Amino acid sequence: MRILVVGSGGREHALCWKIAASPLCDELFCAPGNAGIAAEAECVPISVDDTAGLVAFARDKAIDFVVVGPEAPLVAGLADALEAAGIATFGPSARAAELEGSKGFMKDIAAKYNVPTAAYRRFREPTPAKAFAATLGLPVVIKADGLAAGKGVIIAHSRAEADAAIDAMMTDRQFGEAGAELVVEEFLKGEELSFFALCDGTHAIPLASAQDHKQVGDGDTGPNTGGMGAYSPAPVATPEVARRIMDEIVFPTVNGMTAEGRPFKGVLFAGIMVTETGPKLIEFNVRFGDPECEVLMLRLKSDLVPALMAARDGALKNFDLRWYDDAAVSVVMAAKGYPGKPETGTVIGGLDAAGAIKDVAVFHAGTKRSERGEIVATGGRVLAVSATGRDVAAAQALAYKAVDAIDWPGGFCRRDIGWRAIGRR
Questions:
Q1: Residue 101: CB partners within 8 Å, gap ≥ 6?
Q2: 336 plus 378 within the same structural domain
Q3: CATH code for the domain in which residue 17 is found
Q4: Among 54-63, 216-225, 396-405, which is the least confidently predicted range?
Q5: Are strands 88-90 and 65-68 parallel, antiparallel or unpaired?
Q6: Based on the domain organization, do 181 and 207 belong to the same domain?
Q7: Cis amide bond preceding 139, omega within 30
Q8: 425 falls in which pLDDT band (50, 70, 90)?
Q9: In the list 271, 350, 358, 388, which could disulfide-bond 407, CB 3.0-4.6 Å?
């Protein structure tokens, strides 16, 4: 098969790494890709939001299967355009991708189909939003309705913070049109979990569990980011918790979306809070998480390509996936300044030495090769240094050994990825 992966981040590098290993894959392309992906696939300079360009490329190259990585092109209808052109695609339609494209829509679906989630209301004006926030306990959660690159959620610990967050989103348009509508909801207490299920519109099968680290600093301090690291498996995802997530959250949502005329095909990523009374839905994403995808691909024993094809083809009913027993840890190395304005253009050395360590994979998230042949940083989250080991502690030690082999004064990372799992031992 000739396969095209759409995207340029660590998630797409991990997907390309896994797809390239499939005996079904003859040729692999990635649009636009990055310096690391270039080792696995032929990178083509087409932006993820150039729907017409991607469709034309897939036609010209007789692409058999497209895997769409990021959420924005899915919400914009890339999967619909590719399928309309006769090109098989992994990823939900625009109408199904609204589960991530609109947090308000997602909450309404959860309420309609009895999916356990936080109490909420939707608002288009700041004054009633502030009034409702004042009726909830502290902290209170303020969310921009639309896509905000993982940054459109503010946990306010005082009334003043809540009011300021509402004004920043609705009046100052901190997140552009994504903040034209808000969701104000109660704060859920518990332990957070990343839960993934492949869906084919009717059936769903769970993937391995994972947990990411959202805050920028050690000990979960500082502002939220797109994710500073992840590990798998997550001890909080006991067999009973996983069963309840499938029965109470995933299956009702898949059935509900079909009933709404929006069948969901792709990977459903449920952000879960495991509370004292059981799992509750925080939010849905309609693609693999990043950096969770990196640890999942390291642990997946099965061939990824048939699984993605089965989801697209409605053939998951009798499908099964196998996983390595080893744990995996991924440490994100970010450019200094992140999650604010990152320092780009800095040179990264030592990548070959890090990647040569046994059981280590260095996934690139924001890199390019300069005219001088050097690898340079192009974004905020730049590398996902990943490793496997007999348990999370062993995988963590190996991942940080690889981090320390990388020579990048312009970068930084957290030094405690996986601390919850290690602390349970």
A1: 71, 75, 94, 146, 147, 286
A2: yes
A3: 3.40.50.20
A4: 216-225
A5: parallel
A6: no
A7: yes
A8: low
A9: 350
**pLDDT tens per residue, range 239-256:** 999 999 999 999 999 999
Q: How far apart are CA 239 and CA 279, in angstroms?
A: 12
Q: Where are any strands of DSSP class E within 233-308? A: 265-275, 278-285
Residues 205, 291 within the same domain: yes
What letter represents residue 372's amino acid?
R
Which pLDDT band holds residue 289 (cuts at 50, 70, 90)?
Answer: very high
Question: Is 266 within a domain?
Answer: yes
Are both 86 and 165 inside the same structural domain?
no
Number of domains in the chain: 4
CB 333 within 8 A of CB 412: yes
Per DSSP, 119 falls in state -
- Which one-letter DSSP state was computed for residue 415? S
| 318 within domain boundaries | no
Residue 28, token pair as written in the block = 């692999």
Neighbours of 303 (CB within 10 A): 18
**Residue 24 CA, distance from chain mean position:** 25
- Residue 101 resides in a domain: no
Structure-token match 């590398």, residue found: 383
CATH number of residue 132's parent domain: 3.30.1490.20
Q: Are residues 76 and 182 in the same domain?
A: no
Dihedral pair phi/psi, residue 274, rounded to 5°: -85, 100
User: How far is 303 from 421, CA to CA, in rounded Å?
Assistant: 27
Print the domain residue range for 417: 327-423
Binned at pLDDT 50, 70 and 90, residue 134 comes out as very high
Work out the mean pLDDT of the chain and round it to a whole number. Answer: 96
pLDDT digits (tens, 9 = 90+) for 153-211: 889 999 999 999 999 999 999 898 888 999 999 999 999 999 999 999 999 999 999 99
In this structure, are 290 and 334 located in the same domain?
no
DSSP 323: B
